[in-house]
Amino acid sequence: MRTLNDIVTINQRGHPKGCPLFIKTWHVTINSSTKRKETTPMDEFVPRSEYMERIGRSDDRMHEFDRRLSKVEEFGEKLQSMAISLQGMVMTLQTMQKEQAEQGERLRKIEEEPADNWRKFTWTAFACVVTGIIGFVLAKIGV
């Protein structure tokens, strides 16, 4: 089976410029009952200049697709780099969160220490007053 490149090569070697090329084209229709594409071969002659124009447009589209694909690849690399950076940031955040929880616990203990000391002081003072009263009462009774 010959490809389009074979046909162009044969035409360029064996025929003068401007000679039409024979190109096999396909007519595509959609069957309304089955909703399937049906292709039927069509034969048409395409002048060499139009054929070369089509090849040129195909090349232009191919270069445009290559350029766009390169941009997509660059974007993918940047996205991957950002994902790695984000993963590092998440790990750092988790470490910071643990440290903050530990510091919160230490701060709670520091804040509770004066309250505990005050409670101990008031309890000791209360115990001294009660002991003094009991001692006074016992001294009055003569015990």
Could you explain the architecture of this structure?
- There is one protein chain.
- The longest helix is centred in the middle third of the chain and has 94 residues, at 48-141.
- The chain has helices at residues 4-14, 48-141, and strands at 21-30, 37-46.
- The chain has two helices and two strands.
- A hairpin with a 6-residue loop joins strand 1 and strand 2.
- The chain has a two-stranded antiparallel ribbon with strand order 1-2.
- Helix content is 73%, strand content 14%.
- The protein has 143 residues and is α+β, with helices and mostly antiparallel strands.
- It has two domains: 1-46, no CATH class; 55-143.
Q: Enumerate the spans where pLDDT stays under 50 for 5 or more consecutive residues.
A: 1-24
**DSSP helix count?**
2
How would you write the strand order of the largest sheet?
A: 1-2
Q: What is the N-to-C order of secondary-structure elements (H for helix, E for strand)? A: HEEH
Helix content: over 70%
Radius of gyration, in angstroms, nearest whole number:
46 Å
Distance between the termini: 130 Å
Mean pLDDT: 80
Q: Summarize this, please?
A:
With 143 residues, the chain is of the alpha+beta class. It is 73% helix and 14% strand.
